[in-house]
Write a structure and sequence with these properties.
Length: about 170
């Protein structure tokens, strides 16, 4: 299955729409959002433009938790605190946002990959894209959707092969 991965949309509706449409054009069947959606209307826009189910985690800038949960229930999305494990095609994907300094967030993601317990460790927060493999485990940060913090960017993963690619829009 082809899945889209996004993070750090920070209410940039124009970029969310652009990324959502591009992921739909690529044929993704699920979108993972790694936090900092920020406002509920942003989650709704991603769902409307991508036309795919969404699995998400909260980020450090997601303050409207009750409203995000309400919108999620209306748009075929599930969102919760990180870390979160999602199974897709028998692949264990660890979803996290991150907190504190960017280098520590990346270090934690790599340590989790080193454990070998997951097929992929997906993280956001740093606003810096990364695609690497640690002991055969995919470590992926899609970079930010928001153009205000360096985006828009996204990533896609083929869960059959665990091959991934970054997309700069």
């Amino acid at each position: 299955m082809l899945i889209g991965v996004v993070s750090d949309s920070h209410d940039d509706i124009e970029s969310v729409r652009t990324v959502g449409v591009r992921l739909r054009e690529l044929g993704v069947r699920m979108v993972i959002h790694l936090g900092d959606i920020v406002a509920p209307f942003t989650l709704r826009e991603l769902a409307n433009s991508a036309k795919a189910p969404i699995e998400a985690v909260f980020g450090n800038n997601d303050a409207e938790i009750p409203m995000l949960l309400q919108v999620a229930s209306q748009v075929n999305a599930r969102i919760s605190w990180w870390p979160r494990i999602v199974e897709v095609d028998s692949r264990r994907l660890l979803l996290m946002h991150g907190a504190g300094p960017s280098d520590i967030t990346a270090e934690v993601a790599h340590a989790l990959a080193e454990s070998g317990h997951f097929s992929a460790v997906l993280y956001g927060h740093t606003h810096v894209a990364e695609l690497s493999y640690v002991k055969g485990v995919l470590v992926l940060n899609p970079g930010p959707v928001s153009r205000f913090v360096g985006g828009p960017s996204a990533a896609v993963i083929d869960t059959e092969t665990m091959a991934a690619r970054l997309i700069r829009l």
